[in-house]
Amino acid sequence: MPTSARPDLAIYEEILRMEPHEIVGGLVGILGKKITAYLAGVKDTRTVDAWLEPGRTEDESRRLDFARLRIALRVAKLLATQESDGVVQAWFGGLNPQLSDRNPSRLLRDGKAADQEAVLNAARAFVVGG
Fold this sequence. Notes:
Helix content is 68%, strand content 0%. By secondary structure, it is mainly alpha-helical. It has helices at 9-16, 20-31, 33-40, 45-51, 56-60, 66-80, 85-93, 104-110, 113-129.
């Protein structure tokens, strides 16, 4: 459970040190393969399965935006400090009033810095205020 004014700081530092396959594994563990594939911009969950193996994502690193996946994992882990995986999945997949009724997954997938920051701020607000 986060205890600091910046509850996601420890999560940020943890994710910053992760290898690509660990990032994918963390997303799959909380969000599942379908949402992870959507966030990565791929249509096939078999691709996600391949990324779970160490070294396999290295071949994909030119095509994948791991910065975007790191932010997605940061948001997922932050939400998971307070909520079940099912709630986190619903949060990622639903229309969020704090994001002008836009979908957090789509905003993260599209990769605009301002949108990613807005998603992170919406997750912080959700954790603090529910």
